[in-house]
Amino acid sequence: MRKLWTVWLLMIVMLLGVVQPSMAGEARLGFKIEVDGKVQDYTARTVTIEVKDEEIAIGDMPAIILEGRTLVPIKEVFESEGFGAKIEWNHERKEVTVTYNDNTIVVAINSNVAYVNGEKKQIDPDNAKVVPKLIRDTSKQYAKTMIPLRFVSETLGYEVAWDPITYTAAIIAPEIESAPAPVPVPEPIPTPEPTPVPQPQPEPLPLPNYDSDIDDALSTNANFVLKTGNDISPLPTALKRNPILWTDGNPNNAVSLTKPEANLNFNAITGEVVKIQSLVYTLNYNRPRFEISASGPISDIKVQTMDKKIVMDIVNAQNGLSQQTYTSNPVASGVRTSQFAVDPMTTRIVIDLKSNDERCLVTLSEDRKTLIVEFEPKTIHTIELGQSHLGDYIRVSGMAPTSVKTFRMSDPDRVVIDLVGTQTSIGWKEAEASGQFVTGIRTDQYNAVTTRVVAVMNGTANYEVIQNGSETWIQFTQTGLKNFEYMSNDTNPMIRFNQRNLNFDKSDIEVIDDYENMTYTFILPEDVSDSFGNGKLVVDDRAIDNIELKQDPDGKTRIVIKQLEYYEYKLEVTAKGIVIAGYKPKALYDKIVVIDAGHGGTDPGAVAGGVHEKSINLVISNYVKALFDGSENYKVYYTRTTDVNKSLQYRTDLANTLEADIFVSIHNNAMNTPAFQGMETLYMPGGSTTKLSSISIAKIFHETLLPIVDVADRGLKPRDGLYVLRHTKMPAIILELGFMTNPNDLAKLTNPEVQQRVAEGIYQATETVFNRFPTTR
What we know:
Elements: H1 7-15, E1 32-35, E2 38-41, E3 48-51, E4 54-55, E5 64-66, E6 69-73, H2 74-78, E7 86-90, E8 95-100, E9 103-108, E10 113-116, E11 119-122, E12 133-137, E13 144-148, H3 149-155, E14 159-163, E15 168-172, E16 224-227, H4 238-241, E17 244-247, E18 261-265, E19 274-284, E20 287-294, E21 300-306, E22 309-315, E23 317-319, E24 324-325, E25 332-342, E26 345-353, E27 359-364, E28 370-375, E29 378-387, E30 392-398, E31 403-409, E32 414-420, E33 422-424, E34 429-432, E35 438-447, E36 450-457, E37 461-468, E38 471-478, E39 484-488, E40 493-498, E41 510-514, E42 519-524, H5 529-532, E43 535-538, E44 544-551, E45 557-563, E46 568-574, E47 577-583, H6 585-588, E48 592-597, E49 607-608, E50 611-612, H7 613-629, E51 635-638, H8 648-658, E52 662-669, E53 679-683, H9 694-709, E54 713-718, H10 723-726, E55 732-739, H11 743-749, H12 752-772
Parallel strand pairs: 3-15, 18-27, 19-23, 29-33, 48-51, 48-52, 52-55, 53-54
Antiparallel strand pairs: 1-2, 1-12, 3-4, 5-6, 6-13, 7-8, 8-9, 9-10, 10-11, 12-13, 14-15, 16-39, 17-29, 19-20, 20-28, 21-22, 22-26, 24-25, 25-26, 27-28, 29-30, 30-38, 31-32, 32-36, 34-35, 35-36, 37-38, 39-40, 40-47, 41-42, 42-45, 43-44, 44-45, 46-47, 49-50, 53-55
């Protein structure tokens, strides 16, 4: 049921600014971390940290265990009220300095060497792999500086007690009634003399490959605020006369390509037929790299490049690979393979690139069993902050990035620009500015394949990313919105338009939830441009891409919210104006279902007797929609309601972002002979019939629908290779209602009365599922 009574309660919680910190001492499902540019699953429990019997609020990155040692976010733990140390970060040397009482500890990222009051020490004599790290929770935009807990604590005179039951590391302060205990390190720290004595200078510590601390290690976007109304400087400002320009002085880095380049480093030999066995993507010293392994020495490779493609024909090779798709790969969108020829046996591998601006080296390992394709990083050689008649701009020159990702951060206000697939030759730079909006700029290498540029802002500006060959422009302009405020925390986004005495109330407002296109629209009954302005404002946080106010020809106003993450929005008209709050469906509804009509548009599915499977699927789905639309007990979403082609990824992404309780996909079967007949229900293996799972809902739906369709019973079929079953995060099933290639089955599947009864059966089975397995929300 709809939980409308919770709406205002949640609004109050948001207005109070409640922030939920990361929970420690727990095992997190699907928790992934990035360490040294590589993403890995973290399946162990996170660690709770206590100082003086008080649990420390860790924030966005919990304490974890790596190489058998506890690593903690340095600022949150050692600058906490219970400890009180001072933390300083040196960008140039990539060093962290911890100062506490008369002790100073200097450590560097990825180094096992530390300097304690100027004396060189090994952090962990028993394990050289225990070093400070930059570690990122992959669900966050930024990394944290993590250091070994025990080394720093004990060096500063504290003890660390470990509770293996609760996964708690307690930092115990030294006794204060006696003289200070000696610091328990392998060799005593020299006692400072009454007069200053020059300390030995530390040797340079090894630098990491990149600096992930730029605007992230000690920052947070958890409580994000954006509002208009600041005093804006008129154009031009001093920035027009005094632009900021950083360059490495090497224009050759700017050469752009019209198609990819592949350099070869191997010779052909005569060999036997081998089998291509595996394909792995890695990063090798910041360079994207594909490794293709064979069962024996590879004879020869014919390589050619085309528009956004590298095509490799491996001679004397049998194909054993499947297709690969990538979403976050910096250079490739996927890899396709096929048995291109049989005389000679030839495997074709096509790497589909995201741009033509790619150079790679194709080579073989020493034993010729591994084909290696390694890409050069794209070089960024110039960054300029300037001003035109439109406003402030940032110009980035070099080889075109694979993609540009932007987002805002607040406190202080910043716009972050990530140039994915690039490596800066400029290094760390920072400068103040006197722009209309931009008051500062800094840049550095953010991670192995991303250059980050940060603009420090004064006031809320619009911005647009424009890519033109080897140049990327970020143009800042003044927004047309007025009296606007946006707030977002880890739970809910909230939009305010502040204006008293509006001439309408909530009942006069029309709502359009276009979740298929991630757009939410409110239609106000009058023109409010005098109060709230008009135009688009880029929000660019985790929840919202942009918000636009525009006037209809009939005098009404549309508030259009373009979402990045799905929320259902509730609007209230108050004495102070308009408040729009976003909620995850699970905060509002007890039962959430996604109905998927298989195929559609250019994908007809099975075809038999002139009938397209996509049409049967859609008719049944729309009958289901009519039934659920008349019920307030369920919230049901549909992957398509018209004859359009939606990708499999779209269907599963929609279900996952909606956090549905169950996913039901409607399909029909076909074979090359009419002998096959009957209904079968496909489910993801695993789970229990006594709990809400893929097999438990498959059993309920199958037993409900089989007598309605009245065809042969082919039973429940486990399928772990089907995309919509494998990529949905909730129990999911595929209903194969019958065989279109069997005349008896097809007659029933195309009968409108049967189609209506099947829809009623899907409704009934859904009721049974939630009655048997209530969500308890």
